[in-house]
Recover the amino acids of this structure.
């Protein structure tokens, strides 16, 4: 009866539903609906949602999933797809306009997994965590599905007629009232549409806004070279790398490539004994900082001084006017780094992050020039963006015009300025002043709520498009699926509508643009097009390298704060406040992506929140933590009130080792109010403190405790703080750490540290794999070797594993209860003083032990040993005693305490990988070495009557890893890569003395410290 | 033999508070089910009933929603369920020890408490058995632990100690029930003969299997009883040894201890006697008739057993700590240090207080003879034994080998509800037992009386001079 009533209601007043208080409440729910499957029976709200999704599905089944237009499969397969076989299509995932090439695995018409595209310059076959999670955005149940005018559902015809009316009005004044606001656009076809529009309305204006932008970099190149330039680093050639407040290994459009090149210069093998050295100076630890050989915690505002000191030591051709003093330690650090840089002229590089003012960028370019790095480790191209601009200037101008009432038609494509524009512009209050505002976006977000019109945006996987990579290479984005919701449009389609080409298919729009671009003669275009679409890269589109020269008599004033007599030294009562893009939310656009929400942030291991990070010392001074020796921080953090320039924000404070004192780092991208059911209400909105004159850091912030606490989900105990008396980590054989020098003296680090290993006796008869010896019977012994030396802890593997293996998201409360489901986790250990510890990251999948403690104790034989040495998990058989998990010394097993899988959101069923069982409630699960991929390769090999080739099986983690830290293969083949790695002298087995004889082994973590710098941290705890 | 018992019993304080006759014994004990029950019975039974409904509620919710309603997590994947399981199983041990081992050892004082303790065993094992069943992720599939023939030829994994548990606990329960019921048959016959209502007559008649007090019945009864005692004796040692292997077989520091089997058995008897005392003392108050048969001497003996087993348990704690440090094994040392000084230090030291220090007061006869203190100490010991299992399960798991996977454990409402629910169920069952079944083994008491004093007490001449070992109840008029 109840259901009947709701059903009626749904059909009768859909419009009402959109605006009900229930919806508002729903958007502000803190946790994913699947996070609390236990909380309730199906409520009315959930029932409505279910019905809504079912409706969408009903529409789908009518249309089929197949995309429109001739798309081209990448694999060499027959014309028609084989049932049960997947097809791979090359396309690109964009972030802030920049493309990262991917191959999408499409199974029976539904994309289910993204892998890196080896041909793409920004991917080189790998991905980052954010790219991996893009597939979930496609299926997000909270995506907007309908056009809304003031929140009421409207058909397209109403919008187009209103739009035509408005454009006709504007036509008269040459579009003087039209303002276009987009994100950064690299897409040539979209840019062409915009240009065409601007041509038709010459007085219309186009602004671009990204909360995380390249403004400082462009301004810096303009300062140093006189024009906007796009630097590209060639890290493979760099022996010494200095990163100033830059997270180049993790953030930015080329981070995956940089990580790969960096790792290539860092791998240590018995016959390869050189590695690069990375120096990082930054306030808040980042992935790059945690990977560094030497890390200097320093305020963002003082990095300029550090750069200046290095520039002076190197005699860089730049005049720097700066006041302020470095501390003696910092001064020494600068000198040592300068010496090391000078010793590697032409083989070194200095990289400055987006947060640093243009002047610091200019100094770095001067240093690079002085070192002869220009053209070698750093090259320049024109910006790949369609219209390079300073975003902050753009948004400021636009706000001013809106304030002045000059904006009559505001068309926003994809951006969310109501949420992420600088706080001083009060953008959210300006939008309602615009008489005709249109917002195209995938969610009815904060900006949509304020606009007259909301247009639902297609996901890039549903439509045709194109985008440039960091070096300008163009990727044609193929649709992978028919649009899930019929009313959605891409930005390209909307622009075409504005240009009166509304009837054109997106395929025509993209193809005709490239036809007219005349890259190849018309006769060859079809072949060229086919190849471009198939490969995922368009040949000859990378931007040419520019020869640049530093401006003569280059002189910079380190900005504003040098104008005062004395640099405002951060103190406990006058803190430096630093804003940084969130490692998983970026600028907030991924807020409703539960994979990214739950992914433990690479540095802090926090999920579902951003916190106000600070050093332990500052935390104690602010009263955030007491002076007592706390063994661990509880599952909550104290809320503090941060005040800066008259703005306040309450946020949870969290001490993090290695943070600079007297400073607070806030990650952007949280505290959203209309992100969707999972993202709204998580974390704290740092944008409320961010103003257009201090986009990245500001000083004079105050913080006081409020006496309240906030629950914090983290996947690792905060170990660092005090464990000395427990003598826990330092001597546990978890990781083997050594320096390059030690390795060069004697590469047998394992033997040196832990003695001769060899095989220990076992009470149990080992598994007999004797059939291996039969040459006619292809038998394999799978093994994995992980190289923590190159692992940056970026967590791409974790999300890739989640996507591949249908791993559910459990939500914040369940993470707090330590029930996260990741099959692969990245352990983080600190060494040395909490002020600036050494940090080690270690990916931990299942060890697939030969003497597996788990197998022994299962009463129902649900976890058994395979003939190829895998510890198999038989979900059907598992009754859930959990003894296997208790007995696993590595604690890699995961248990379905509830029914975690998305069973109430049918659209998410499309996402599931059909090769992997979806686990129900009450069963144990764990890493299988991607056994489905092993079997896929086995079937292929059997068909061709051959052994599986080395490298033919690539587990999802290895596939995604940007640095190639993970190697998988067959150790029955002595020539396989993994066999060779297992013969390395520094091979290390985690907890070897337990004699579990894992198939997953590690190489030693090798560091390359500079002997001139304080070696204490490197020696501390070295065993 | 008889002489020896007699001699010893006569030297010791009396096992009967006053002179008895067979009839008196039957009347005093056998009439309790027919008497009006005291208000205390109603109140306590009511509390137990409420607890039972709570238990049912908690279990239904558990099956509907999942084990996630408990506080367990990774790394501590076993929590209250296993703690309570071991605790309840341990409690059961006193019953078996009293009925089997003390019988074989001809301990005369066991006669008046064995029925009671056996009932306690059965109900405790019932409570215990719930936990391993319901703690599984999929309780509806838990029967896969039994080696049931199936067309997949899928067999349990016999190397797993959980599998051994299935056999150990189910055997234990079966034998305990048989033993208890066996001993009840003559007494049920007596109840049948005294019953006034037709229903009681029929039910007790059926349950007493046509017992007619014939010599041949007694002969068969005797040998069967002895055989079952023989069967039960190894069980006293084996069940808790197997339960301890649930831990000892693993590789987890703090679980992987060779000391566990004897230490667990001693702990089980210890907690079992504590629970008998916890029950007997209030029952003596609720049913003053029982005081004639459960004398201060009994209390004293049980306190002594508690003291002795408590010392063994305490020795176990000391050895655990000693090995932790002496082994020079990093993980063992880390484990014991963490137990003593880690986040659960208070639980560990509370355990030492409850099980190590408090029982030492039982060295003093004055304490042993003070019912109030003995009762309080029995409660403390029960708590201590529960804490011991908490320490073993939780502190070993929450910080084991890999520091990155360390965590904390805390029970939820549902953990407590299930635990309190089983306490309620146990109480309810004990009081139902008191309501419907003779609480003390009448036949055995009469036998004991005969052995100690012959027919000295038969002053009213009603006691027929019957068969010397087993004396027929005066009122039993023959077959049903």
């Amino acid at each position: 009866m109840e259901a009947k009533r709701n059903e009626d209601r749904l059909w009768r007043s859909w419009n009402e539903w959109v605006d009900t208080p229930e919806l508002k409440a729903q958007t502000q729910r803190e946790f994913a609906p699947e996070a609390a499957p236990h909380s309730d029976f199906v409520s009315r709200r959930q029932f409505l949602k279910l019905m809504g999704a079912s409706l969408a599905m009903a529409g789908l089944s009518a249309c089929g999933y197949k995309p429109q237009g001739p798309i081209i499969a990448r694999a060499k397969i027959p014309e028609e797809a084989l049932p049960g076989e997947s097809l791979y299509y090359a396309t690109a995932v964009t972030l802030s306009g920049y493309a990262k090439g991917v191959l999408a695995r499409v199974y029976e018409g539904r994309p289910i997994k993204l892998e890196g595209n080896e041909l793409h310059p920004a991917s080189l076959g790998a991905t980052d965590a954010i790219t991996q999670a893009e597939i979930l955005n496609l299926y997000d149940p909270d995506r907007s599905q309908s056009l809304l005018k003031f929140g009421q559902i409207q058909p397209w015809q109403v919008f187009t007629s209103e739009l035509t009316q408005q454009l006709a009005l504007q036509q008269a004044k040459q579009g003087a009232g039209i303002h276009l606001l987009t994100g950064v656009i690299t897409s040539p076809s979209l840019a062409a549409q915009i240009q065409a529009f601007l041509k038709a309305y010459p007085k219309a204006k186009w602004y671009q806004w990204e909360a995380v932008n390249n403004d400082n970099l462009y301004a810096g190149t303009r300062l140093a070279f006189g024009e906007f330039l796009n630097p590209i680093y060639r890290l493979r050639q760099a022996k010494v790398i200095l990163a100033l407040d830059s997270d180049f290994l993790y953030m930015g459009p080329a981070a995956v490539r940089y990580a790969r090149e960096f790792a290539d210069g860092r791998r240590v093998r018995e016959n390869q004994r050189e590695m690069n050295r990375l120096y990082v100076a930054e306030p808040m630890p980042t992935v790059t900082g945690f990977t560094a050989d030497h890390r200097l915690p320093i305020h963002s505002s003082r990095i300029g001084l550090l750069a200046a000191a290095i520039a002076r030591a190197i005699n860089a051709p730049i005049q720097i006017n700066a006041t302020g003093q470095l501390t003696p330690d910092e001064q020494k650090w600068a000198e040592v780094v300068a010496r090391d840089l000078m010793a590697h002229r032409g083989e070194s590089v200095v990289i400055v992050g987006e947060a640093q003012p243009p002047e610091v960028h200019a100094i770095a370019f001067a240093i690079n020039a002085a070192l002869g790095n220009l053209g070698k480790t750093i090259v320049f191209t024109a910006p790949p963006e369609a219209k390079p601009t300073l975003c902050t200037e753009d948004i400021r101008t636009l706000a001013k015009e809106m304030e002045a009432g000059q904006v009559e038609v505001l068309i926003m494509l994809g951006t969310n300025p109501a949420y992420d524009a600088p706080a001083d512009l009060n953008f959210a209050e300006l939008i309602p002043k615009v008489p005709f505002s249109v917002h195209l976006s995938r969610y009815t977000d904060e900006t949509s709520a304020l606009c007259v019109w909301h247009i639902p945006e297609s996901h890039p996987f549903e439509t045709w498009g194109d985008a440039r990579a960091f070096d300008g290479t163009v990727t044609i984005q193929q649709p992978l699926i028919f649009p899930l919701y019929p009313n959605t449009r891409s930005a390209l389609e909307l622009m075409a509508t504005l240009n009166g080409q509304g009837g054109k298919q997106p395929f025509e729009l993209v193809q005709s643009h490239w036809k007219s671009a005349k890259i190849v003669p018309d006769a060859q275009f079809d072949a060229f097009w086919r190849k471009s679409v198939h490969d995922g890269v368009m040949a000859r589109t990378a931007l040419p390298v520019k020869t640049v020269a530093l401006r003569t008599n280059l002189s910079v004033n380190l900005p504003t704060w040098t104008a005062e007599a004395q640099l405002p030294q951060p103190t406990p009562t006058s803190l430096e406040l630093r804003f940084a893009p969130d490692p998983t939310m970026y600028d907030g656009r991924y807020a409703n992506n539960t994979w990214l929400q739950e992914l433990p942030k690479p540095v802090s291991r926090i999920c579902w929140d951003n916190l106000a990070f600070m050093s332990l010392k500052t935390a104690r001074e602010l009263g955030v933590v007491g002076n007592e020796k706390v063994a661990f921080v509880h599952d909550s953090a104290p809320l503090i009130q941060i005040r800066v320039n008259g703005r306040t924000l309450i946020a949870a404070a969290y001490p993090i080792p290695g943070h600079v004192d007297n400073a607070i780092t806030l990650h952007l991208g949280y505290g959203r109010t209309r992100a969707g059911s999972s993202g709204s209400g998580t974390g704290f909105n740092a944008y409320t403190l961010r103003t257009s004159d201090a986009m990245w850091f500001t000083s004079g912030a105050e913080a006081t405790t409020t006496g309240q606490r906030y629950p914090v989900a983290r996947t690792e105990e905060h170990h660092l703080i005090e464990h000395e008396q427990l003598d826990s980590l330092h001597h546990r054989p978890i990781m083997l750490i050594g320096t390059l020098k030690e390795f060069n003296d004697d590469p047998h680090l394992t033997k040196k540290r832990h003695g001769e290993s060899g095989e220990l006796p076992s009470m149990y008869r080992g598994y007999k794999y004797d059939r291996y010896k039969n040459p006619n019977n292809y038998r394999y012994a799978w093994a994995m070797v992980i190289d923590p030396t190159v692992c940056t802890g970026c967590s791409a593997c974790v999300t890739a594993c989640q996507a591949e293996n249908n791993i559910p998201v459990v939500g914040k409360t369940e993470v707090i209860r330590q029930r996260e489901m990741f099959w692969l986790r990245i352990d983080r250990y600190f060494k040395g003083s909490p002020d600036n510890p050494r940090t080690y990251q270690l990916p931990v999948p299942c060890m697939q032990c030969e003497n597996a403690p788990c197998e022994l104790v299962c009463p129902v034989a649900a976890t058994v040993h395979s003939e190829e040495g895998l510890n198999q998990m038989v979900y059907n058989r598992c009754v859930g005693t959990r003894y296997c998990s208790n007995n696993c010394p590595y604690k890699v097993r995961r248990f379905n305490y509830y029914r975690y899988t998305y069973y109430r959101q049918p659209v998410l069923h499309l996402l599931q990988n059909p090769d992997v069982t979806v686990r129900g409630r009450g069963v144990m699960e764990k890493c299988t070495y991607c056994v489905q991929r092993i079997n896929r390769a086995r079937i292929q090999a059997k068909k061709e009557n051959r052994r599986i080739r080395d490298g033919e099986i690539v587990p999802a983690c290895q596939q995604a890893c940007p640095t190639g830290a993970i190697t998988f293969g067959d150790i029955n083949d002595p020539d396989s890569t993994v066999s060779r790695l297992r013969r390395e002298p520094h091979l290390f087995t985690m907890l070897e003395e337990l004699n579990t004889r894992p198939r997953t082994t590690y190489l030693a973590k090798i560091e390359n410290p500079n002997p001139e710098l304080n070696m204490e941290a490197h020696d501390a705890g070295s065993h | 033999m008889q002489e020896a018992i007699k001699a010893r019993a006569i030297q010791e304080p009396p096992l009967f508070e006053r002179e008895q006759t067979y009839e008196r014994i039957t009347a005093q004990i056998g009439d309790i089910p027919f008497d009006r029950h005291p208000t205390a019975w109603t109140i306590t039974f009511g509390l137990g009933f409420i607890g039972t409904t709570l238990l049912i509620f908690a279990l239904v919710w558990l099956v509907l929603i999942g084990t996630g309603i408990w506080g367990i997590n990774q790394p501590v994947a076993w929590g209250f369920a296993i703690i309570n399981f071991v605790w309840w199983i341990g409690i059961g041990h006193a019953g078996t020890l009293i009925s089997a081992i003390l019988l074989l050892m001809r301990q005369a004082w066991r006669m008046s408490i064995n029925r009671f303790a056996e009932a306690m065993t059965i109900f405790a094992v019932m409570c215990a058995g719930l936990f391993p069943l319901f703690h599984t992720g999929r309780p509806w599939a838990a029967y896969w632990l039994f080696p049931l023939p199936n067309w997949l030829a899928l067999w349990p994994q016999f190397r797993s100690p959980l599998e051994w548990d299935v056999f150990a606990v189910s055997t234990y329960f079966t034998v305990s029930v048989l033993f208890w019921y066996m001993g009840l048959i003559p007494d049920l016959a007596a109840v049948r003969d005294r019953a006034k209502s037709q229903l009681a007559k029929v039910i007790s008649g059926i349950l007493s299997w046509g017992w007619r007090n014939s010599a041949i019945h007694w002969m068969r009864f005797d040998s069967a009883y002895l055989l079952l005692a023989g069967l039960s004796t190894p069980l006293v040692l084996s069940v808790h040894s197997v339960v301890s292997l649930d831990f000892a077989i693993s590789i987890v520091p703090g679980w992987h201890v060779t000391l566990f089997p004897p230490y667990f058995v001693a702990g089980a008897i210890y907690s079992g006697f504590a629970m008998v005392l916890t029950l007997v003392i209030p029952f003596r108050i609720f049913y003053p008739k029982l005081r004639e048969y459960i004398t201060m001497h009994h209390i004293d003996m049980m306190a002594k057993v508690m003291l002795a087993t408590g010392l063994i348990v305490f020795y176990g704690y000391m050895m655990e700590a000693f090995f932790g440090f002496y082994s020079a094994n990093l993980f063992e040392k880390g484990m014991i240090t963490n137990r003593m000084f880690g986040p659960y230090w208070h639980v560990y030291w509370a355990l030492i207080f409850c099980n190590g220090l408090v029982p030492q007061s039982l060295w003093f006869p004055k304490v042993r003879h003070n019912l109030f203190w003995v009762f309080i100490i029995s409660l403390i010991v029960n708590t201590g034994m529960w804490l011991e299992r908490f320490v073993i399960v939780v502190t070993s798991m929450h910080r084991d080998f890999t520091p990155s996977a360390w965590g904390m454990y805390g029970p939820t409402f549902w953990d407590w509800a299930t635990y309190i629910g089983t306490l309620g169920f146990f109480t309810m069952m004990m009081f139902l037992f008191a309501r419907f079944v003779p609480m003390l083994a009448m036949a055995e008491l009469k036998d004991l009386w005969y052995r100690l004093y012959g027919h000295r007490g038969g002053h009213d001449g009603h006691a027929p001079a019957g068969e010397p070992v087993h004396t027929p109840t005066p009122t039993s008029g023959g077959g049903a």
Summary: The radius of gyration of chain A is 28 Å. The CA atoms of residues 782 and 970 of chain A lie 5 Å apart.
